[in-house]
Amino acid sequence: MYENQIIGVVVPAYNEEKLIGRTIDTIPDFVDRVIVVDDGSYDATVERIQERVAQQPERVILIQHEVNQGVGSTIITGHRRALEEGVDVVAVMAGDAQMDPRELPQVLDPVVEGQIDYAKGNRFASGEAWLRMPKARYFANAGLSMFMKIASGYWHVADPQCGYTAISRHALEMLNLDQIAKGYQFENSMLIHLNVHNLRVVDVPVMPVYGIGEQSGINHLWALAAFSVYLVSVFFWRLKEKYIIRDFHPLVFFYSFGLLFFLVGLLLGLYLVAYRLLQGPVQATSALFATSLFMSGLQFLMFAMWFDMDYNKNLR
Q1: Interatomic CA distance for residues 54 and 78, integer angstroms
Q2: How open is the CA angle 42-46-51, to the nearest 5 degrees?
Q3: What pTM, to 2 d.p., does this model score?
């Protein structure tokens, strides 16, 4: 136990035969349940996990997916089992040993103390990310952080792809786990759903760990483009759920008219620029109209973001 609370750690694993043993072995002793979920690995990952289960049968639990379902689905499976085990706070530590177990207490503390519903690691806060992270991953994560602030409503958090997290049993029971994304969008989806339920989230500085033999099969440019499209869709879903269905806030109008005016003004402005280059002079009133639409839309969007930030200022 940790501070009189039952602690569980979910360890998602997929083809991690080289590092899964190290991950399990270094999880602190105060953790009551280590729930390792194998996501259809075809290497010796399961064998390495079973060795640890044999050593600590009361503590280490192995769950196997017969086929690969995605990292999000794997973590959700672990969260469901943690609820069944009566765990009070559930943390997530990846099976590739990229999360320093010595930092687990600082990730747990805000949740254990009841200050926060969900704590997540932030590898940027330490100032070491630029030196330690692969540059492609650094820039991809930095770009996603900017988009995620707008999409999630948690303007105070960054590094949304960091999977070093801890969540309270209360928060976990409030969420509809069936609605949360099952793939690599899991962390983003969690933040969106937490915000809809007005649950408190905090960033915890953690050190990035790389160069220990981990492998990533993600194409970062593709991931940034795919995640951006995904965040647009969940952004509108959050606005609908939070500001229309569950409550009503005028920022919906500001976002709606802001996007309309901004896009129309931008497209009209581009058309007039092309016309000027290819055909000749354009009417001054047309240029003024496009500029007015563009600036009005931008101003509406800024006000909408400010309203959203103000509405969510207590969720930290």
Answers
A1: 19
A2: 150
A3: 0.88
Distance CA(107)–CA(33), nearest Å, equals 17
- Asked if residues 142 and 160 have their Cβ atoms less than 8 Å apart, the reply is no
With 60 as the cut, is the pLDDT of residue 216 above it? no
* Cα 17 from Cα 252, distance rounded (Å): 49
- Over 60: is that where the pLDDT of 130 sits? no
Residue 252 CB burial class (10 angstroms; 0-12, 13-18, ≥19)? middle
Residue 184 is predicted with a pLDDT of: 83
AA letter at 220: H
Q: Where are the alpha helices (DSSP H) in the chain?
A: 20-25, 45-55, 71-84, 104-112, 129-132, 135-152, 169-174, 186-196, 220-240, 251-278, 284-311
Instruction: Give the model's confidence band at 183: pLDDT under 50 very low, under 70 low, under 90 confident, else very high.
Output: confident
The CATH architecture that domain 7-234 belongs to is: Alpha-Beta Complex (3.90)
